């Protein structure tokens, strides 16, 4: 039974502060100022900086890093920030590259974080497909997370996932999900004719699949290759008759759910 709440603050892009079970968790840190960020042989352009700086975000118990290979999920300042936290939960390959405080988890495996008032928060890694099926070799491994613990709302953090089939698997294996932090934005890059994250209508579809009472979209502003906005999210949820579940946050804004 849920006896506590979850607070989510949007820092910007994919970066959100999630307070759950007495812990403060940060998703995909992107603290660099606006400007170009190298991404392999191409360049991604950051158009807005974070609403809260790395120095002002406060003490963080863990970073949930969906992947380390793309700067819109881990930019230069975000990478420099990682040693400041006790643990970085990420893909196994990213943990090998990052070393230090990084802990690698594969899909459907988990690690546990000690809660300050006793007990643990279970961090379950779940699959994420960063583009259409078959893109895994090109995009590299990505994971999402499901957060579970006694008395806390089960919370799903999708990471850069473009697959509704994956959302269905999460709902089937680990549901019911109460809170969903979904990476949207319909990300696209010039070399690929495909969406690399959920589009706004797909975020609404994911909300319906999960049955979550609150859906907080992230990864829908701040970078030039995000093709869909918070306005399109609002429209998609209205069409799906799910507006009562949508929690749209401006960068810097927080909501207790």
Automatic annotation (TrEMBL):
<feature type="domain" description="Metallo-beta-lactamase">
    <location>
        <begin position="24"/>
        <end position="219"/>
    </location>
</feature>
<protein>
    <submittedName>
        <fullName>MBL fold metallo-hydrolase</fullName>
    </submittedName>
</protein>
<dbReference type="InterPro" id="IPR001279">
    <property type="entry name" value="Metallo-B-lactamas"/>
</dbReference>
<keyword id="KW-0378">Hydrolase</keyword>
<dbReference type="Pfam" id="PF12706">
    <property type="entry name" value="Lactamase_B_2"/>
</dbReference>
<dbReference type="InterPro" id="IPR036866">
    <property type="entry name" value="RibonucZ/Hydroxyglut_hydro"/>
</dbReference>
<dbReference type="InterPro" id="IPR050114">
    <property type="entry name" value="UPF0173_UPF0282_UlaG_hydrolase"/>
</dbReference>
């Amino acid at each position: 039974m849920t006896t506590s709440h979850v607070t989510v603050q949007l820092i910007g892009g994919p970066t959100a502060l999630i307070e759950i079970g007495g812990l403060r968790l940060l998703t995909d840190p992107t603290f660099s100022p606006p400007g170009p960020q190298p991404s392999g042989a191409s360049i991604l352009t950051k158009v807005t900086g974070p609403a809260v700086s790395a120095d002002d975000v406060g003490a963080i118990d863990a970073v949930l890093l969906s992947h380390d290979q793309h700067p819109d999920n881990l930019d230069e300042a975000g990478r420099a920030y990682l040693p400041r936290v006790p643990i970085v939960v990420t893909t196994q390959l990213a943990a090998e590259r990052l070393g230090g405080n990084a802990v690698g988890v594969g899909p459907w495996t988990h690690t546990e974080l000690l809660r300050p008032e006793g007990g643990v928060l279970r961090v379950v890694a779940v699959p994420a497909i960063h583009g259409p099926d078959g893109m895994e070799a090109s995009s590299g491994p990505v994971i999402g997370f499901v957060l579970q613990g006694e008395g806390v709302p089960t919370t799903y953090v999708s990471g850069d996932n473009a697959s509704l089939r994956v959302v269905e698997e999460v709902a089937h294996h680990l549901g019911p999900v109460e809170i969903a932090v979904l990476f949207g934005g319909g990300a696209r890059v010039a070399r690929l004719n495909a969406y690399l994250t959920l589009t706004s209508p797909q975020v609404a579809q994911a909300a319906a699949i999960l049955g979550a009472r609150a859906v907080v979209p992230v990864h829908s502003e701040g970078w030039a290759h995000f093709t869909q906005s918070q306005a399109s999210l609002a429209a998609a949820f209205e069409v799906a008759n799910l507006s009562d579940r949508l929690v749209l946050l401006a960068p810097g804004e927080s909501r207790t759910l």
